[in-house]
Amino acid sequence: MFIQTEATPDPKKLRFLPGCEVLAEGTLDLGNREQAGVSPLAERLFAIPGVTGVSLGRDSIVVARSDREWQHFKPAILGVIMEHFMSGAPVVRGKAAAPSSPANPATDGGRAEIIREALRQVIDPELGYNIVDLGLVYEVTVEDRGMTTVIMTTTTPGCPATNYLKAGAGEAAAAVEGVESVDVQLTYEPRWTPEMMSPEAKAHFGIRDGGGW
Amino acid sequence: MTGVTLSRWTMSYFAAALVALMAAEAMMAVGYGFPAAAIAAPETLILVHVVAIGWLSLLMCGALLQFLPVLVAQPLYSNALALPALVSLVVGLAALILAFLQLDGRIAPAVPFFAIAAALLIAGFAFVLWNLARTMAAAPTMPLPARFVVVGLAGVTFTVVLGATFALVLGGTVDYGPLVALTTAGLPIHVVAGLGGWLTFTAMGVSYRLLAMFMLAPELEGATTKAALLLGAAALGMAIAGGILAVLLGGNPSLALLAALAMGVLALALYGADVLHLYRARRRRNIELNSRMAAYALVSLAASVVLTLLLLAIRRLGDHAAAVVFLIAFGWLSGLGLAQLYKIVAFLTWLECYGPVLGKGPTPRVQDLVVENRAGKWFLLYFIAVWAGAAALLAGLPLAFRFAAALLLVATVGIVAQLVRTRRLADVKDAARLPQGARPPRLLLSCQP
Q1: Each residue of B381-410: b (16+ CB within 10 Å) or e?
Q2: d(CA B33, CA B44)
Q3: How far apart are CA B176 and CA B181, in angstroms?
Q4: Which domain holds residue B424?
Q5: CB A1 within 8 Å of CB A108
Q6: What average pLDDT score do residues B119-134 get?
């Protein structure tokens, strides 16, 4: 199963896309632990320190955080969502489990997130920050038999570091246990902007949220 | 898209250029050339060409061989052409210096050094132009910064053709009337084509991209940038074509140069507005030393424009042209060049040393190769010396100018020492300096595994 994450206009909220249906219809906003009682998934998310709100939608889960930085508990959120959908438990009590169709339930096993973590040792030399938090890694997918695809970009087309970044991403991903082969693909669609950085990277460079370029 | 690779000889261009810069500053410090000698004296011509060809042109050629491919996202046409170009330019400059010494009567006129210099410099610039033109021709797109470079390359073509004409006439190889007239009256056109067309226009194009890249600012492709390109190109066309035509028709090129100045000032004003926008719209709040020092260079450019207009208004431009040229050459072009060199040398050194081991383990950052606080003091001294030197020239104080030139030399040596330290990885912490598989870079050329 591969869970994508998406930034939202509010830096304190992050959208998680598990690749399957979450709610059959409508949305469910749960602002505290008491309200979360209607959803086993939301209940488990609220058990993670730092989670202050959960919104369930048709194909996504938006998690709100306190002042705790995402990097400290995002892996725990990913783990809870993955375990929930793998177990087949219902998203909302009293209803049948959502008909999940995760990408590769048998093979991924959270490996994409581990690979992302490994890619953090690859730094963009000019900015001096890791390519994952800079938002240069667009997608990591792990298919059967550990075949991995990394789709990434560079801060500027034609950057002299391009080949090194590609090779470095390949080396880092290949070093993850269980990865058999890595295909690193370069794309400039969409073009990278500083808005794609993680909140931590933005703070490092003194970039305020919003406003694009 | 294919990634752009390291240009093998760019470091060698930079090293040769820095040697020429320090040599020129030493000449000024000991009183060689203007203001101790006349503005058209052979000593001054030697000094001017050591700066224009030895320092600024080699710097620009080396930078373009590495960064034009970045501008057009297309690998360099040929790495092999870069070395013969460098050798031709350096030997051509040496021949030109010997030719000026012949003109001064210091060496015997037995060897036709002017003709040799013309042939070698034409060959050297032609190698560079061919390499860059073929790179651009193969590029899928031509962004605006690259179009500035195209105009700059047209500028160097005219500069070299005019310079070669002067050399052949002065050396006695050619005595065709119109070319003799061009040699007599065409010096301002040669200067405008070189300083304005080749060096300033190319620096503008490269700076649009580098400043945006280093400060995380939006790349500019809007109306002001396009207008700056068109007006600037028109100004250069007017100065070069109009000026040459005026001379060949037996007139004075001043009118064409004045019209070109008017358009050029407008183009520079638009460029200034664009650059201000880049600084204001940057997403990276804490900018690095190269971007901070580039601002001083841009201030020097603005000061040289204001000074030109003021001198023109009081009809004293002819008397103080040297101060304006000094400010453009050392404040704007050299200041910007040194500031960007500080970043580029660290960046290229990082790629060469740590690029091959990226992803295999922790690597230092580019920022770990430099110590900005230490380098910043030398840069500050450099710009203070430039502004003091320009003031001394304006005030007609040759001794004060020599003192400023000596300070300039000290500051440049300080900056060069930082570049050598970067190249030697001297400021990287011992534990991180050479991870397994990393090779220390060579000082004067880039080796790509």
Answers
A1: bbbebbbbbbebbbeeeeeebbbbbbbbbe
A2: 4
A3: 9
A4: 300-435
A5: yes
A6: 98
- Judged against a pLDDT cut of 80, whether residue B224 lies above it is answered with yes
CA A16 to chain B, closest CA, distance in angstroms equals 27
Nearest to B343 by CA among B298, B292, B290: B290
* Residue A186 main-chain phi, psi, to 5 deg: -100, 135
Closest CB to A162: pick one of B4, B286, B348. B4
Residue B431 phi/psi, 5-degree rounding, is -65, -25
**How many C-beta neighbours within 10 Å does residue B261 have?**
20
The bridge status of strand A181-186 relative to strand A147-152 is parallel
Query: How many angstroms separate the Cα of B168 from the Cα of each of B104, B173, B377?
Result: 16, 5, 45
In chain B, the number of structural domains is 1
Q: How far apart are CA B369 and CA B169, in angstroms?
A: 49
pLDDT tens profile A48-94: 888 888 988 888 899 988 887 787 778 778 878 877 887 777 888 76
Read out DSSP for B15-27?
HHHHHHHHHHHHH
CA dist A207 and B1 (Å) reads 29
Q: For residues A75 and A111, what is the distance between their CA atoms, to the nearest angstrom? A: 12
Q: Could you give phi then psi for residue A31, rounded to 5 degrees?
A: -95, -10
B449 touches A: beta carbon within 8 Å: no
DSSP per position, B103-130: HTTSS-TTS-HHHHHHHHHHHHHHHHHH
| Interior angle at CA A208, CA A203 and CA A210, nearest 5 | 130
Domains, chain A, with CATH or none: 4-87 (3.30.1370.70), 111-205 (3.30.300.130)
Strands A61-65 and A137-142: what pairing? Answer: unpaired
* β-strand partners of A183: A149
Peptide bond into A105 cis (omega under 30): no
ipTM for the assembly: 0.82
Contacts A170 to B, Cβ<8 Å: 359
Q: What is the pLDDT of residues B404-420, one digit of tens each?
A: 999 999 999 999 999 99
What sections of A29-146 are H helices per DSSP? 40-46, 70-87, 111-119
B253-267, pLDDT tens digit by residue? 999 999 999 999 999
The CA angle B238-B85-B137, to the nearest 5 degrees, is 60
Rounded Cα distance between B205 and B145, Å, is: 4
Selected residue of A116, A120, A126 to mutate for chain B interface (largest B Cβ count, 10 A): A126
- Secondary structure in 3-state letters for B214-264: HHCCCCCCCHHHHHHHHHHHHHHHHHHHHHHHHHHCCCCCHHHHHHHHHHH
